[in-house]
Write a structure and sequence with these properties.
- This protein is mainly beta and 694 residues long.
- The chain folds into three domains: 101 residues, Orthogonal Bundle (Arc Repressor Mutant, subunit A), CATH 1.10.10.10; 295 residues, TolB, C-terminal domain (Neuraminidase, 6 Propeller); 188 residues, Neuraminidase (6 Propeller).
- 9% of the residues lie in helices and 43% in strands.
- Strands 8, 9, 10, 11, 12, 30, 31 and 56 form an eight-stranded mixed beta sheet that branches. It has a five-stranded antiparallel beta sheet with strand order 4-3-2-1-7, covered by helices on one side. Strands 13, 14, 15, 16 and 17 form a five-stranded antiparallel beta sheet that branches.
- Helix 1 crosses helix 3 and helix 2 packs across helix 3.
């Protein structure tokens, strides 16, 4: 029987199901299935000598004519792949006898996501799954037209996040990205027709795979693989049957978007990316028939300055639907005719679009919108441009099977709370919830003057600024803009709170300041339309914020008593704190923490990217800086001392404890850190067959 469990030979890891080896240094190497089978057989027989006849009998089923030459070829290729400088020979040839391994294989435990269950639970669940499989097998894959009741079926239910459903064209298989609670990220494939079977793991590396798309003939999978530690991002083509992989193109290290689609004729891959000669991100098209082809930008005739994100080819291949953002708070769907480049805006005034897909008949689009962390779906009629709600809670990232109207989607409820982590070593290191309810609470900022917490909450249906006492009691709403308000920041005197929100048009975002006593809200005067998280200068006379413009993305200072605007950085500053009249500590587009004074032409690096990898979730004090670190299976909070220039780990926490892109605040009076915590770390994939929404 073919060895399926992974194992190591020296410092080389072998993944039989992937038909690949992973050297200790260097990229993954895909090998032919027969080569891996030979290696697995030798490993199973270690330390015995295995004759050529035995190998031919088991690998080539006794076919001497084919096996003699094929075995010699397999041994040669294996030696080439396994050779290392410190150990030049791994497979030894025993003259007139056969082959044997010189290094003992070390078997590894294969990783498969499972729930711990009792024996009774297993028997009950197994019976239910078998009954479901029998009932499923009694029906045709394609449901009769008009018989749908929009019944929602659960396809996945493992712990963690099951993301970005990608059904095969015939709807039988589902590929998805699974992020387990311990941090493992890989692609998996599930047979929808046999729910009693476990999902099959498709990737076996330590990189981060993105959303997958199937070729229209169902033979290939395309996906992005990004490894920050190894500093590479590749677009990969995988054979669905053999799991062999082929390099397609490079993708950008910057940005976290993973959107991708393939044209109906399998000739063009569309993906989100950045070109070296053009730093602006967008959607690019790649000719899959030409190995030497370079990606080309999507044609555009208007609204070309907006940020392109997601995309979906029409079933006939003549159009591509894309999403564009005029600001971070406003995203809409546009339709582009690929031959002419003409575009038409289809939706108006949407917020954050989280997925879109065409109905197989091409008559409408199904898309999802996230507003104030509440996800909901809509159907867009392409004749009337009318959007109607689907009334499915937690609906996002929909995807139809190409050959039949089965709609798969990602079901996810995002729940956040504000938690406190004690810095006192004598106190338990478990985060304690300060603000939790049936609503989401995010971005805490503590004021020592008022002894209150400012935060954003969606309790009103929109994210607004709220205040609460230090223990989380006496909650009260401070703003009423009915917009997506974010990133509150107290002034040092405790009289004002600065924050970011879209303007009245929704096409730009502005920095606003609200008076805590009068609740009067005014915008900070700025010639720019894109801003980031605000902070106050020490005397509260100005605001520091990053600016997003066509020319640059850097930190600026906005004076409050007049309209003077001063640029502070020229190296991609993203978030900064002015700790005195001249010294700026800030993060950039690249990872790391930096310090700059006006007389310095170049910033001084305080912490490198190997230690400091967050942009916003950190706290400055006179003694040093608190910030979280993300490890493979946990998070930890550490402290960097400005005097000794040493980093000290303080606390070890579960993976979902600190939301890394949120904020962190220090309550020095109680010696605790405040941050946003994920309350519900779960996402599942569901299915509706032949949906009829209206």
């Amino acid at each position: 029987m073919f060895q399926q469990a992974p194992f190591c030979i020296g410092k080389i890891r072998i993944e039989p199901l992937e038909y690949a080896i992973y050297p200790d240094k260097g990229p993954k190497q895909s090998l032919q299935p027969k080569f891996i089978e030979v290696l697995c057989y030798l490993a199973n027989q270690y330390p015995n000598v295995v004759s050529r006849q035995e190998l031919i009998e088991h690998i080539w089923h006794g076919n001497i004519y084919v096996g003699e030459k094929a075995l010699t070829n397999a041994i040669w290729h294996l030696r080439q792949a396994l050779t290392q400088a410190e150990q030049p020979e791994i497979i030894e040839t025993i003259r007139k006898s056969g082959y044997r391994l010189l290094v003992a294989p070390q078997m590894l435990k294969a990783v498969t996501p499972r729930f711990p269950r009792s024996a009774i639970q297993i028997m009950v669940i197994t019976g239910m799954l078998l009954l479901s499989a029998i009932l499923f097998s009694m029906t045709d894959l394609r449901s009769p037209s008009g018989t749908s009741s929009n019944e929602i079926q659960s396809i996945t239910a493992e712990p963690g996040l099951e993301l970005f459903p990608a059904p095969s064209p015939d709807g039988r298989y589902l590929v998805y990205k699974w992020r387990s609670p311990d941090g493992q990220v890989d692609l998996y494939r599930r047979d929808v027709t046999q729910p009693q079977l476990s999902a099959v793991r498709l990737t076996f590396d330590h990189a981060n795979e993105g959303r997958a798309v199937w070729s229209r003939d169902g033979k290939w999978l395309y996906f992005r693989r990004k490894d920050i530690d190894e500093n590479y991002c590749d677009i990969v083509k995988m054979d669905v049957q053999s799991l062999q992989e082929h390099f397609v193109a490079k993708c950008p290290m910057t940005g976290a978007l993973h959107y991708m689609d393939i044209s109906p004729d399998n000739t063009t891959l569309a993906y989100w990316g950045i070109l070296e000669q053009d730093p602006r991100p967008g959607i690019f098209l790649l000719d899959l028939n030409d190995p030497a082809a370079l990606p080309r930008p999507l044609p555009c005739d208007k609204d070309c300055d907006q940020s392109e994100r997601d995309m979906a080819f029409s079933p006939d291949g003549q159009y591509i639907a894309i999403t564009r953002r005029s600001s971070r708070f406003s995203e809409d769907i546009h339709l582009i005719h690929l031959a002419s480049g003409r575009s038409q805006q289809l939706t108006f005034g949407k917020r954050d679009i989280v997925g879109l897909t065409w109905r197989p008949d091409g008559q409408s689009l199904i898309y999802a919108v996230q507003q104030a962390d509440v996800r909901s779906g809509f159907e867009l009629n392409l004749d009337t441009l009318e959007s109607k709600p689907l009334n499915i809670k937690g609906f996002s990232y929909p995807s139809f099977a190409r050959q039949l109207p089965w709609l798969f989607f990602q079901h996810r409820d995002e729940q956040y709370q504000i938690a406190a982590q004690s810095l006192d070593n004598e106190v338990s290191s478990s985060p304690f919830p300060i603000l939790q309810s049936g609503y989401n609470h995010k971005y805490p900022d503590y004021s020592a003057v008022t002894d209150q917490i400012a935060y954003a909450s969606n309790e009103s249906g929109y994210y607004e600024i709220w205040l609460a006492d230090a223990n989380g009691s006496n909650r009260r709403q401070l703003t009423d803009l009915k917009r997506s308000v974010r990133f509150p920041k107290w002034s040092h005197d405790g009289q004002f709170v600065a924050f970011l929100a879209p303007d009245e048009t929704g096409n730009a975002d502005r920095i606003y300041i609200v008076n805590v006593l009068t609740r009067r809200t005014v915008p900070v005067l700025s010639p720019f339309s894109g801003h980031n998280r605000p902070t106050w200068v020490p005397d509260d006379s100005a605001i520091i914020s990053a600016v997003y413009s066509e020319d640059n993305r850097d930190l600026y200072r906005f004076e409050l008593d007049h309209q003077q605007v001063t640029r502070l950085t020229w190296d991609g500053g993203r978030y900064g704190i002015l700790i005195d009249n001249d010294t700026l500590i800030y993060t950039r587009t690249t990872k790391g923490l930096f310090q700059k004074r006006p007389e310095q032409k170049k910033a001084r690096k305080l912490l490198g990217s190997d230690t400091f990898r967050v942009r916003y979730t950190w706290v400055y004090t006179q003694d040093g800086i608190y910030f979280p670190q993300l490890k493979n299976d946990h998070q930890q909070i550490g402290f960097y001392s400005l005097s000794s220039q040493q980093f000290t780990p303080l606390l070890k926490l579960p993976l979902s404890s600190v939301v890394i892109d949120s904020s962190m605040s220090l309550d020095n009076r109680r010696q605790r850190l405040l941050f946003t915590k994920t309350l519900f770390y779960q996402s599942d994939i569901k299915l509706i067959k032949d949906p009829v929404f209206h």
